[in-house]
């Protein structure tokens, strides 16, 4: 039996939600697919625990998944294992858009959705069929050392999403039932935010799993854990009628353990939807507000207004659901005062937790292309492309000012007042987040002198 290790490269630094490691669904799903095809498989999530290198180095193949910010770590792992004669396969956002770079540290790159591509590649490596040039979505070097990029694979259809196995988190090394369980019920997003790479991986059209398939997965998770579920869909409420059907089914089946999800501000337009979300166990929604600056929202192509943001906050909180608000700072229309106003807005409107993320031009996005062509990229040290470091020249402030003021803004939000307010209500969860956030910000500010513009 061939042994396969999956490695999800670890993040290069701390951020406010480092305290809650989440395994990306792709790594666990692909591990499960190959396990069901008869391989001996283990998955190693570096943000969860230290990998078992003895097992990994005894593998026949190692699959490494990486984002842009974890690419340097992934390349280091690939280089180390290739030197031992192990075949390396890379996938994820960064290799999809930078396959020739990734092939310097791997033997194959699986681009885009890898559910079928990886399975076909393993069949080729085992038996020589199908012919390698017929495997869609695959990049590699041919016998002459020339890069070969097979045609892109078509995105999976909805019935194909239903046919995929339930991700088996028991394959993850040192996985604990108390950790967050990621659940994917759809793929794709019709919106086109300039800084987002999602649509370039999963397409501009929503594809949904059936309610029955989602319920089956939730029942499986409930049989092994009472921990929180995280619906990782880019917009869990994209199709409101479909979401309501799922929520009603969850309530009927008593699958109402705490869960969180990513939504857009338009969730506020449907009070029945919010009522069902609360009844079905929704604890927190993650909303990409991005900015309170109308000009910035337009520059991001966000398709929402400040009025939409305020209305969504009020409606969501009226239904007893907490809000994690995400803001992207650093557009050409942002200045230092806008950072301060953003934090004041979040505090005034009672947002429970926030992330102030630095605008980051990721490979594969229109923003990256524009920044590169205009010469505004400061470097391509991918470990700094984590939304917590400035990697381009801003328009209305220096790079170091944007870096420092964004961190200080986080510090103002996660203040002692925030911590004491939650302690006074014996809300240890949010008090703990506040302490972790404050500690992380202070630590990062002390280290910031090592990172210059």
Could you name the key traits of this structure?
single chain; 453 residues; alpha/beta; Rossmann fold; TIM Barrel; 18 helices; 40% helix
Q: Overview of this structure, please?
A:
This protein is an alpha/beta fold and 453 residues long. A 7-stranded mixed beta sheet has the order 2-1-3-4-5-6-7, with helices on both faces. The protein folds into 2 domains: 3-149, Rossmann fold, CATH 3.40.50.280; 180-413, TIM Barrel. The termini are far apart. The longest helix has 20 residues, at 428-447. Helix 16 runs antiparallel to helix 18 (428-447). The chain is built from 18 helices and 15 strands.
Summarize the structure in short.
This protein is an alpha/beta fold. It contains 18 helices and 15 strands.
């Amino acid at each position: 039996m061939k042994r396969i290790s999956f490695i999800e490269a670890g993040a290069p630094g701390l951020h406010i939600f480092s305290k809650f490691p989440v395994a990306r669904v792709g790594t666990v799903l692909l591990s499960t697919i190959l396990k069901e095809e008869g391989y001996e498989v283990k998955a190693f999530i570096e943000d969860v625990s230290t990998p078992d290198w003895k097992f990994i180095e005894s593998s026949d193949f190692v699959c490494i998944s990486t984002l842009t910010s974890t690419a340097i770590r992934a390349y280091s792992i690939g280089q180390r294992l290739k030197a031992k004669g192990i075949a390396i396969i890379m996938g994820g956002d960064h290799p999809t858009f930078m396959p020739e770079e990734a092939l310097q540290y791997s033997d194959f790159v699986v681009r885009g959705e890898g559910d079928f591509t990886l399975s076909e590649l393993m069949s080729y490596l085992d038996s020589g069929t199908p012919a390698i040039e017929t495997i869609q979505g695959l990049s590699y070097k041919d016998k002459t050392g020339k890069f070969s990029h097979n045609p892109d694979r078509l995105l999976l259809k909805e019935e194909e999403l239903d046919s995929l196995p339930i991700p088996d988190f028991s394959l993850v090394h040192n996985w604990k039932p108390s950790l967050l369980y990621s659940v994917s019920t759809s793929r794709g997003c019709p919106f086109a935010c300039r800084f987002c790479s999602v649509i370039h991986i999963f397409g501009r059209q929503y594809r949904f799993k059936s309610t029955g398939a989602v319920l089956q997965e939730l029942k499986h998770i409930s049989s092994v854990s009472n921990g929180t579920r995280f619906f990782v869909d880019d917009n869990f409420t994209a199709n409101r009628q479909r979401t309501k059907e799922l929520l009603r089914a969850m309530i009927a089946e008593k699958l109402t353990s705490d869960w969180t999800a990513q939504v857009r501000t338009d969730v506020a337009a449907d009070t029945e939807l919010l009522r069902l979300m609360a009844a079905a166990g929704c604890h927190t929604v993650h909303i990409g507000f991005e900015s309170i600056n109308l000009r910035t929202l337009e520059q991001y192509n966000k398709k929402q207004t400040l009025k939409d943001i305020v209305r969504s906050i009020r409606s969501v909180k009226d239904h007893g659901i907490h809000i994690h608000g995400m803001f992207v700072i650093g557009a050409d229309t942002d200045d230092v005062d806008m950072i301060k106003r953003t934090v004041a807005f979040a505090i005034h409107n009672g947002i429970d937790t926030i992330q102030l993320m630095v605008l980051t031009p990721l490979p594969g996005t229109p923003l990256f292309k524009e920044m590169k062509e205009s010469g505004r990229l400061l470097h391509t040290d991918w470990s700094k492309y984590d939304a917590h470091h400035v990697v381009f020249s801003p328009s209305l402030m220096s790079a170091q000012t944007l870096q420092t003021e964004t961190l200080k803004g986080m510090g103002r939000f996660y203040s002692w007042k925030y911590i004491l307010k939650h302690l006074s209500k014996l809300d240890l969860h949010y008090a703990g987040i506040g302490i972790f956030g404050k500690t992380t910000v202070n630590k990062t500010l002390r280290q910031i002198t090592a990172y210059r513009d």
